[in-house]
Design a protein that fits this description.
single chain; 481 residues; alpha+beta; 35% helix
């Protein structure tokens, strides 16, 4: 049986995972068309990702396959095409005909038979054969064209010389594949469990290793080493966010202009948002903890507000629950807890009506997770998002279904640029205890986020993430030998 694995102790992912994905897609298209007769001699044509280089140089980044193509075929190399017969799911791969010089620089060139066996498809050909292959079939082609509602970027359809000779449908395939990708198969779930298990253990290794005086990038290094050395995860799921102190209020810290380079101070709050990717399936986990292993009263208060919100949401999630309502609930809990602590003034209703909690929680509660970390299908095509602070960053508003995988990641942050404006604005200043808010800002508190990856079951959830979460668990874990 064909499978993907990088070592004896790592998960073996059967290529049948992708065959099942193709069958699910074909079944959906058959049903949408009204039966097998309606899709007779119709073919899906997908184009994989191209080989790229760094700017104008000949140095190449590690290739990462285009997500839809990987979902359908699991191919690791660039410059491939794939064809699927909608009537029965028969699958064909078309790879580049590599020059002999490839042998010297990059090693063995797989034969067509080896490609067929490796990826468990029905036949393999060279890309140069694609046009004649499709001419012989004389069928209608379906290509992938649509807008990613998360990124706003258009997915361009497959293109090859001679495609204009065919009847081509660009209207159906994108939404059908998005719908399929949203519901994870059991085979996909196994890979996602594995990515979470490895990343959870890596986060624990980071927590154990963290000491004041280290630099943030050293914790990033520990995480990256752990997931590759112990789990065979060559890539992290995204650029790691390893934030300490005031940096933990920067939502996507760790980018090229802020490369996890601050020295960690005693008393800093840490926010570690890092994930592991295996066979392109990612985890996305955030842990927050004190650098010295002991929460201050202020850190404990903020952390437990976030944990209270997350626990409440997790207790409610199941099929039929509206994600937008969970975002509202999180904001309500922040308002309630901040009123109790005299950080805010007024009533919960007034605070919610004026969107005050979004000055502390300016992002969405979570996002779908799949081959893309911020996975496809958060909104229907053409649907408009709210433009309110916090709500405009909500990556989906859908009603949850069994088989979906979503992150649950409430947070509370003391972001100077947001809060100084809010506490001095005549329309919002009356809701804030300026003295207490300023104290948090001046202490460079930063922020807290807690993020778990959750699979929606028939009657609830399976939480794939396993990290210390309560204050007591974290303190005990960080201080024990």
């Amino acid at each position: 049986m064909a499978f993907y694995s990088v070592g004896q102790n790592n998960l073996r992912v059967p290529m049948s995972l992708h065959a099942e994905n193709r069958q699910r897609l074909c079944k959906l298209l058959q049903n949408q068309a009204g039966g097998l007769e309606k899709v007779k001699n119709e073919y899906i044509v997908l184009e994989g990702g191209p080989a790229t280089s760094f700017h104008s140089s000949d140095a190449e980044p590690l290739f990462v396959q285009e997500s839809f193509f990987h979902w359908a075929f699991g191919v690791y190399e660039p410059d491939y095409f794939g064809v699927i017969k909608i009537e029965d799911g028969t699958a064909y791969l078309f790879g580049p005909k590599l020059p002999e010089s490839y042998l010297i620089w990059l090693g063995h060139i797989a034969s067509l038979e080896e490609i067929k066996q490796k990826y468990a498809v029905d036949a393999a050909f060279y890309v140069e054969d694609l046009l004649n292959f499709l001419k012989e079939k004389q069928g209608k082609l379906h290509v992938l064209n649509g807008f990613n509602t998360d990124s706003g970027i258009e997915h361009k359809p497959a293109s090859f010389s001679g495609i204009e000779q065919f009847e081509v449908d660009k209207t159906k395939l994108y939404q059908a594949m998005v719908n399929c990708r949203q519901i994870k198969s059991q085979a996909e779930l196994e890979v996602l469990r594995y990515a979470n298990r490895i990343a959870s253990e890596a986060h624990k290794s980071v927590m154990k290793s963290c000491k004041p005086g280290m630099h943030e990038y050293q914790l990033e290094s520990i995480f990256s080493h752990y997931i590759y050395f112990n789990g065979g995860c060559r890539r992290t799921s995204y650029t790691s966010i390893c934030a300490s102190g005031e940096n933990s209020s920067i939502l996507h810290y760790g980018h090229a202009g802020a490369p996890n380079d601050k020295q960690i101070k005693d008393g800093d709050m840490m926010l570690m948002d890092m994930g592991a990717a295996y066979h392109r399936y990612p985890s996305d986990i955030t842990c927050s903890f004190p650098a010295n292993g002991k929460f201050t009263p202020e850190q404990k208060f903020v952390y437990e507000v976030v944990l209270t919100a997350q626990k409440k949401v997790l207790s409610i999630l199941k099929p039929g629950v509206c994600w937008f309502d969970m975002h509202l609930l999180t904001n309500q809990i922040i308002c309630e807890e901040f009123l109790k602590a005299d950080l805010l003034k007024g009533t919960v209703e007034e605070l919610m009506e004026n969107n005050i909690s979004s000055f502390f929680f300016p992002h969405g509660l979570g996002h779908f997770l799949g081959l893309d970390v911020h996975d496809v299908g958060g909104y229907e095509s053409g649907e408009q998002r709210s433009q309110k602070l916090g709500y405009k960053s909500l990556r989906t508003n859908k009603v949850l279904k069994e088989g979906m995988l979503i992150t649950v990641e409430p947070g509370v942050y003391f972001i100077r640029s947001l809060l100084e404006k809010a506490i001095n604005d005549e329309t919002t200043s009356r809701f804030f205890n300026k003295e207490k808010i300023t104290k948090f800002l001046d202490s460079n508190f930063g922020g807290v986020r807690i993020e778990d990856n959750v699979y929606i079951t028939a009657d609830g959830i399976e939480n794939l993430t396993n990290c210390p979460r309560t204050v007591e668990e974290i303190e005990q874990f960080m201080t024990s030998n």
